[in-house]
Amino acid sequence: MLFPLMIGGVLSAGWIVLDRTRGKTYKHLRKLHMEGLRLKKMHAPFLFMLDKFEIGRRLPVLMFRMQHAIQKMHGIQHSGEKTLLYCAEMLTYSWLVLLVGCLLSLVREVGTGGLAGGVVLAIALPFAMYKDLYTKVKRRDQDILIELPELLNRIVLLVGAGETVQRAINHSVNSQGERNHPLYNELRRAAGDWNNGYSFQQSLEQFSRRCGVQEVTIFTTTVLLNFRRGGGDFVLALRDLSHVLWEKRKAVSRAKGEQASSKLVFPMVLIFFTIVIMIGAPAFMMMNM
């Protein structure tokens, strides 16, 4: 009983001291908007620990991959600071779980099992959040890849009808209204950039960088190489690219279907054994009688 109480006291006192002494240093980071962070007011002590232990220098590959994923999900601007905030969020959840485990250990029926469970969850939570981030990035990339052929078809039709590329992209984006889709969200930003004075080439290059998908890079490269020529060559190049992207869309859809079917295997096996037990148990009991 005394040991979990001491650990809980040390965790609480350490957080309070660091928050009072170092909280103002990281006040500017807490003002950054990042969707999904719920405990930003508690981040200061953990941000100090990340700086103190130089986590970026000690784990460069891990931090680079995490920053790359956060750039895709939350934009390139302030991506380094947002990566630190996400790491601090991980540590905050681990700290809270460990603290709850110490408190549960004070319950007589739970005992030291509460502390052990808290330690296990505190270690597992950062890995779970790291995996969840990459799952969201993968889902976003798949959504962009699935929607890109549809967008390209609209652009081909509009350019073939005599529209310029810029107007064709604007019309395609406006036809989606306020639809919340990663591809159209980034296209709206690109359209806003070239309407606000950026060149069409700069806007598309930034759009490709924000998406971070190879097929989008191929799309923007094809557009930039051919849009100045116009005419049939440009439309033909887009149609060839459209055919390639439709094939990739089919491959992605097929892979998602296989994943969905594989996820159903375990519930089906569980249902099968449940039915076998429900049917077999009465028969087995009758045989014993």
UniProtKB/TrEMBL annotation:
<keyword id="KW-1003">Cell membrane</keyword>
<keyword id="KW-0472">Membrane</keyword>
<feature type="transmembrane region" description="Helical">
    <location>
        <begin position="264"/>
        <end position="285"/>
    </location>
</feature>
<keyword id="KW-0812">Transmembrane</keyword>
<dbReference type="InterPro" id="IPR018076">
    <property type="entry name" value="T2SS_GspF_dom"/>
</dbReference>
<dbReference type="Pfam" id="PF00482">
    <property type="entry name" value="T2SSF"/>
</dbReference>
<protein>
    <submittedName>
        <fullName>Type II secretion system protein F (GspF)</fullName>
    </submittedName>
</protein>
<feature type="transmembrane region" description="Helical">
    <location>
        <begin position="84"/>
        <end position="107"/>
    </location>
</feature>
<dbReference type="GO" id="GO:0005886">
    <property type="term" value="C:plasma membrane"/>
</dbReference>
<feature type="transmembrane region" description="Helical">
    <location>
        <begin position="113"/>
        <end position="130"/>
    </location>
</feature>
<feature type="domain" description="Type II secretion system protein GspF">
    <location>
        <begin position="152"/>
        <end position="280"/>
    </location>
</feature>
<keyword id="KW-1133">Transmembrane helix</keyword>
